[in-house]
Amino acid sequence: MSEDVIILLLIILAIPVTIIVYYALAFFFRKLFFRKPVDLSDVVFSKDRIEQIEKSDMEQERSIVADQEAVAVSDYHNQRELMMNIIRKDIKKSLGSITYALNSEDSETSHYAAAALRDELGEFRNSTHKLYQTIKDSKPLDLDACNELVNLIYDTISQDVFRQSEQKSYVWMMEEVFTRMYEYDPKTLQDHYYEWIVCFLMSIGFPEDAYKWCERAEKEIGERLSSYKCYLRYYYGMDDGENFIKTMSELKKSDIKIDQDTLEIFRLFS
Hints:
Layout: H1 3-14, H2 17-33, H3 57-73, H4 76-88, H5 95-101, H6 107-137, H7 143-157, H8 164-184, H9 191-203, H10 207-221, H11 225-237, H12 241-253, H13 260-269
């Protein structure tokens, strides 16, 4: 067993789960991108360039992790109470936690989770089908329906609640809608839409299609943060550490304001 693995195992035994996640990610990133020495001394950002462009997903993810940890360590009575509290929240944002509760040894907790998930995903499938048909039948293109559909898909599939085949089908539905919007008028696509589709296409194993959207982002929105983030996601997925670092350095040299998520990436690598 290598020294790195032994160290990681010792960390796992010694510290809480939330800290484990941070160190595991750091270990993974460095193994992935620093197979050869890379000079990161110039990847430094001044505080006045940091902008909270949109609310970071990290806060929501921390909440989901906290719910999942609580489900895992609670006794049956507390699991049931916690499950009901999760369901009373914005259930559409808690599907990941509900899916986790399906594995509870308490039959009542798993029943609550299964019923909530069945109802919510059933509603999602019906809504996406209706919106998709509206978009296909609309002339000219119904942009309101397009925006509603892609946001609905994003909010749901980003929680990883579907089997791989169904997850892929919704990624391709999103890609088709974005293509329709792009061909209708590229200006109808919001900057972060490019990020979404690049990320999802990489996650299902279609890097060529993802790169096409990177190029489209560069062409249509130019020197804006989302364009850089598209390439960063693509190079990360391709294990291309050299171009990943190059893109980070180019972003550093620009005057583009960065968001909190991007700042976390740079902190990790520096």
